[in-house]
Amino acid sequence: ETGVTQTPRHLVMGMTNKKSLKCEQHLGHNAMYWYKQSAKKPLELMFVYSLEERVENNSVPSRFSPECPNSSHLFLHLHTLQPEDSALYLCASGDTGDWDSALHFGNGTRLTVT
Amino acid sequence: AQKITQTQPGMFVQEKEAVTLDCTYDTSDPSYGLFWYKQPSSGEMIFLIYQGSYDQQNATEGRYSLNFQKARKSANLVISASQLGDSAMYFCAISPGTNTGNQFYFGTGTSLTVIP
Questions:
Q1: Contacts for A55 with CB less than 8 Å, ≥ 6 apart
Q2: Residue A83 in 3-state DSSP?
Q3: Nearest-angstrom CA–CA distance, B60 and B77
Q4: Which terminus of chain A faces fewer neighbouring Cβ atoms within 10 Å, N or C?
Q5: Using omega within 30 degrees of 0 as the cis cutoff, is the peptide bond preceding B40 cis?
Q6: Residues near B94 by beta carbon (within 8 Å), at least 6 away in sequence
Q7: Under DSSP, is residue B39 helix (H, G, I), strand (E, B) or coil?
Q8: How far is CA B47 from its chain centroid?
Q9: Shortest Cα distance from A111 to chain B (angstroms)?
Q10: Minimal CA–CA distance to B95: which of A26, A95, A34, A59?
């Protein structure tokens, strides 16, 4: 399998549920990212992991908890979400320190919080 | 601070015609990369083309070309010979050379519809 793979593609959860999003990259990159995409808004960077260490956390609520066990895998743990958290969550991988290197994205997880 | 502006929320183009999608940017970094992505309704962000701030020539990639005007801080995407499969959202992004974590800043996107 190649590229960046995200599971699940779709997720519906209640506000009291706990769920996790999974991302896997097969490109040999040293950084992985979580982005949130809401309608009519620019992509919002949530978390960046470079060499498995978190380097950016753009004031994301604590109900979102990332985990990066190695350079190929990235998780986003979700708990007690709010309806406004419904969005498309995109995972990406890239090479830090190489600013002319494109990010490569997965297909995204479309999350609906009821 | 970095900023990407895409002023066209929606564009229409006749099949086989060319179309230009606008992108202006603002950065104080002397070196940076500019990127265009395509997002079909399936959701995946597909990398299309890259332009480095020091590149003398405009980037081209198949039917995609980038009209880079550094003094104007614009990086417009030109799609030639439009196809029905080009209908999608298109996002412009900048990656400043000095940022840690290779952070990308995206615009709000332009929705392109190709008319048969």
A1: A48, A49, A96, B100, B101
A2: helix
A3: 10
A4: N
A5: no
A6: B2, B4, B25, B27, B32, B33, B34, B35, B104, B105
A7: strand
A8: 10
A9: 12
A10: A95
A90, A100, A110 member nearest B33 (Cβ): A100
* Nearest Cα residue in chain B from A39: B108
Q: Mapping DSSP to helix (H, G, I), strand (E, B) and coil, where does residue B15 land?
A: coil
d(CA A87, CA A40) in angstroms, rounded, equals 11
Residue A102 CA to chain centroid, in angstroms?
Answer: 17
Residue A49's Cα: distance from chain center in Å? 10
At which residue do the structure tokens 């929320």 appear? B9
Residues A11 and A108: beta-carbon distance below 8 Å: no
Q: Which two tokens stand for residue B30?
A: 């002397």
pLDDT in tens, A21-67: 999 999 999 899 999 999 878 899 999 998 778 877 778 999 999 99
